[in-house]
């Protein structure tokens, strides 16, 4: 039983890293990234391709860490001068282009067949790595959010023109935010591949991006602890409702649908009564000289 | 305070997951079932789960196994690898089931197969036909035959029917491309020509562009596989665009026919030959008795039924532990003739040499019109 709790903790930690990554982009900077699953997928595929060519696991991990932020730069360059609507569409499209390429070009990573990745044999080790990654991501996000860099990100989020009048280049800040946050998501993808043990295009759908968005909105955009708790609630609700379903004694197909309905209902109620999230961002007053 | 909240959430989850294992009575044998009860291709998956249920009912009505009743624990995979793995981890670790019967594509079956091997557990596959499934001998056993066997027979059948040029249309997944490749290779080896290959993305609301590409290639016949809502949409698009060539398929009985009148006499192909035997007829009768208001069942009900039956026989012959089941399974299937006919496994536990029939869609239902040796 404890193994199952450890497995759930691993998932919570991995998806928390994804939520922190999106929080830096959206919560702090205002970047509407609808392709958040892309760096995650790049990390996972880097691990898978490394395994395919019999390379040590760390080669795939380093490749994922490097490839994800590079992809981020390539994606945001054409979106640099665009408004947030276009930013959302470009990132959404980039994620789908990558997934469909992996699906339709089997020579890269098996196409629809996917690739088997060596699974971490010890669940405790997997959980330890995931929690360690989450702690590092959280510390980095806190460092960004609480320093002058983070304050300027919030200025860009609230008023891009104001940031420019202060002599800062919003594009430069966005670029740095993308590099850091996509690297986080890339490493989370590497770890995910070694936890699940299999990488296929079906694991990186648009719906997975919106799982991360739900965690951020639920927890409270702009608050790192909030988005971690948002991710934890989502994963633990998904896991725990399996047991509620088992206890109910109702037909399995009915219960499966009710489980998702209850899940959705709780989220709707949350958004109705706590629209700023469980842990809303606190208002900060700063001296502009400190930027 | 923040750390306390996180800890509280983790411990709350641990407290929740601690309970259900204790609910299983000592006089039952827990068996796990993983099916995509939500998400994609729900109906076919549900049919498999019902097949398992019918077999469990039959076993329990006959007094169970050594007096112990089969208790099914059904989990939803949502047709996602992560959720399938979560379901399997729960079943193996919390519910302590020795074996799981599963419906799902290879993207779900392979990670769960890997987990089963790692945990020393048993997984019985009822729906996936990837060649990679053979990589988990002693842990993963298949009731569905491999793609290359059925695909090869389909290719030869199409050539024998007089077609000399074909187009293929399949869902872009391991099952679809596996069948298309095997059927295409056999058809070309016989002297035929493939003029167009289409592998469509599942879950789309419309496949007109794909169907138009096929019509433009002017094939003598169309060859493919499909299931669920996607197959219904492909048929609808083909009918509306005036496509009129014969349609040959692997497992035509799992298609969702969209328009009975239009499809009448147009669809035929190679299917499992076991359904028409006494075992298949008995399962069909049991299904209609238990769910009288439901439509005709899909073929997956027979695969689910056989999976539960061979598992029960292995428990009876070997014991309730996973290792005992894995050791007993190959020998019990040798004497088992079930709803999908005789099951022959290779040394990896993958089904080979299945009984195959030719079936045609006539008068609103499929009829067996021949048998393949």
Automatic annotation (TrEMBL), chain A:
InterPro entries attached to this UniProt entry: ABC_transp_permease, LivM-like
Transmembrane segments: 6-24, 31-51, 57-79, 86-105, 125-144, 173-192, 225-244, 256-273
Listed name of the protein: Branched-chain amino acid transport system permease protein
Organism: Bauldia litoralis
Pfam families, sorted: BPD_transp_2
UniProt keyword terms in alphabetical order: Cell membrane, Membrane, Transmembrane, Transmembrane helix
Membrane topology designation: Multi-pass membrane protein
GO cellular component: plasma membrane
Cellular compartment(s): Cell membrane
Superkingdom classification of source: Bacteria
Molecular function terms, GO-annotated: branched-chain amino acid transmembrane transporter activity
Automatic annotation (TrEMBL), chain B:
Protein family (similarity comment): Belongs to the leucine-binding protein family.
Stated name of the protein: Branched-chain amino acid transport system substrate-binding protein
UniProt organism field: Bauldia litoralis
Domain of life: Bacteria
UniProt keyword terms in alphabetical order: Amino-acid transport, Signal, Transport
Domain Leucine-binding protein: 28-364
GO annotation (BP), single: amino acid transport
Gene3D superfamilies, alphabetized: 3.40.50.2300
InterPro entries in UniProt: BCAA_transport (IPR051010), Leu-bd (IPR028081), Peripla_BP_I (IPR028082)
Signal peptide extent: 1-25
């Amino acid at each position: 039983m404890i193994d199952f709790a450890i497995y759930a903790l691993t998932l919570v930690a991995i998806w928390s890293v994804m939520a922190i990554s999106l929080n830096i982009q959206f919560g702090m900077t205002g970047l509407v990234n609808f392709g958040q699953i892309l760096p995650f997928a790049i990390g996972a595929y880097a691990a898978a391709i490394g395994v395919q060519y019999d390379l040590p696991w760390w080669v795939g991990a380093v490749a994922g860490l490097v490839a994800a932020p590079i992809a981020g730069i390539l994606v945001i360059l054409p979106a640099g001068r665009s408004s947030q609507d276009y930013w959302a569409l470009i990132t959404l499209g980039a994620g789908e282009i990558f997934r469909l390429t992996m699906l339709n070009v089997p020579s890269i990573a098996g196409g629809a067949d996917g690739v088997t990745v060596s699974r971490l044999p010890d669940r405790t080790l997997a959980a330890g790595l995931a929690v360690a990654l989450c702690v590092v991501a959280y510390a980095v996000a806190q460092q960004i959010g609480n320093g002058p860099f983070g304050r300027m990100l919030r200025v860009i989020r609230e008023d891009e023109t104001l940031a420019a009048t202060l002599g800062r280049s919003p594009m430069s800040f966005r670029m740095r935010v993308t590099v850091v946050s996509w690297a986080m998501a890339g490493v989370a993808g590497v770890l995910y591949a070694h936890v699940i043990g299999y990488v296929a295009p079906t694991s990186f759908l648009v719906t997975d991006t919106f799982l991360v968005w739900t965690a951020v909105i639920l927890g409270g955009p702009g608050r790192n602890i909030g988005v971690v708790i948002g991710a934890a609630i989502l994963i633990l609700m998904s896991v725990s409702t399996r047991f509620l379903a088992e206890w109910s004694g109702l037909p399995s197909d009915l219960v499966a649908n009710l489980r998702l309905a209850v899940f959705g209902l709780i989220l709707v109620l949350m958004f109705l009564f706590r629209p700023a999230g469980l842990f809303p961002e606190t208002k900060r007053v700063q001296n502009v000289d400190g930027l | 305070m923040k750390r306390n909240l996180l800890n509280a959430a983790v411990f709350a989850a641990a407290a929740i997951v601690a309970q259900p294992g204790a609910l299983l009575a000592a006089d039952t044998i827990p068996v796990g079932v993983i099916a995509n009860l939500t998400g994609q291709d729900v109906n076919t998956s549900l049919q498999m789960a019902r097949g398992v249920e019918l077999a469990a009912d039959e076993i329990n009505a006959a007094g169970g196994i050594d007096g112990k009743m089969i208790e099914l624990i059904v989990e939803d995979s949502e047709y996602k690898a992560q959720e399938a793995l979560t379901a399997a981890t729960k079943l193996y670790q919390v519910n302590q089931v020795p074996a799981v019967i599963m419906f799902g594509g290879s993207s779900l079956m392979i990670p769960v197969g890997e987990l089963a091997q790692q945990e020393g557990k048993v997984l019985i596959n009822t729906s996936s036909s990837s060649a990679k499934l053979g990589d988990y001998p002693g842990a993963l056993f298949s009731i569905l035959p491999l793609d290359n066997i059925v695909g090869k027979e389909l290719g030869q059948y199409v050539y024998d029917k007089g077609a000399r040029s074909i187009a293929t249309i399949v869902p872009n997944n391991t099952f679809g491309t596996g069948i298309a490749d095997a059927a295409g290779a056999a058809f070309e080896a016989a002297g035929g020509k493939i003029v167009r290959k289409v592998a469509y993305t599942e879950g789309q609301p419309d496949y007109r562009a794909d169907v138009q590409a096929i019509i433009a290639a002017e094939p003598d016949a169309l060859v493919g596989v499909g299931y669920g809502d996607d197959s219904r949409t492909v048929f609808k698009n083909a009918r509306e665009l005036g496509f009129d060539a014969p349609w040959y398929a692997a497992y035509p009985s799992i298609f969702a026919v969209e328009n009975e009148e239009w499809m009448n006499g147009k669809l035929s192909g190679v299917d499992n030959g076991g359904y028409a035997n006494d075992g298949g007829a008995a399962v069909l009768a049991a299904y209609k008795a238990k769910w009288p208001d439901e439509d005709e069942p899909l073929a997956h009900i027979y695969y689910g039924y056989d999976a539960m039956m061979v598992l029960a026989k292995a428990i009876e012959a070997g014991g309730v532990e996973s290792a005992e089941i894995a050791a007993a399974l190959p020998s019990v299937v040798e004497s088992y003739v079930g709803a999908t006919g005789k099951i022959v496994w290779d040394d990896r536990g993958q089904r080979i040499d299945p009984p195959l029939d030719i079936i045609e869609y006539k008068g609103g239902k499929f009829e067996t019109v021949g048998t393949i040796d």
